Amino acid sequence: MNCGPEVVPIEILQTGETGVIVDVSGDDKTVSRLAEMGIRCGCEFTIKRKDCPTLITVNGHDILLRCGQAAMILVSAGAASQLV
Question: Among residues of the chain, what percentage have pLDDT more than 70?
């Protein structure tokens, strides 16, 4: 039984959807690079374009994610007010 918000890869969300980043997986180099870009746990985001690359907005900055990168980012969709 899952009592919390659903956690999904960011790549399955649709344009206009929002949420909160809950986990970033991958090797240390990739996770560090994504963190440098502003992609960290707890950050709110909006999907601006669902495609490959995926365009998201985090902290007012537009960021392009490669398909592989988008699969590494787990999010809670539409749950910004529940987690922050």
Answer: 88
Q: What angle do CA 25, 83, 36 make, to 5 degrees?
A: 40
Phi and psi angles of residue 76, each rounded to the nearest 5 degrees, phi first = -110, 105
Residue identified by tokens 């994504």 is 34
Long-range contacts, stretch 31-35, CB < 8 angstroms, 24+ apart: 31/72, 34/69, 34/72, 34/73
pTM as predicted: 0.82
Q: Where are the alpha helices (DSSP H) in 1-84?
A: 28-36, 67-71, 80-83
List, for residues 37-53, the tens digit of each pLDDT value: 999 999 999 999 998 89
Amino acid at residue number 16? G
CA distance 75 to 8: 5
Structure tokens belonging to residue 22: 């809950």
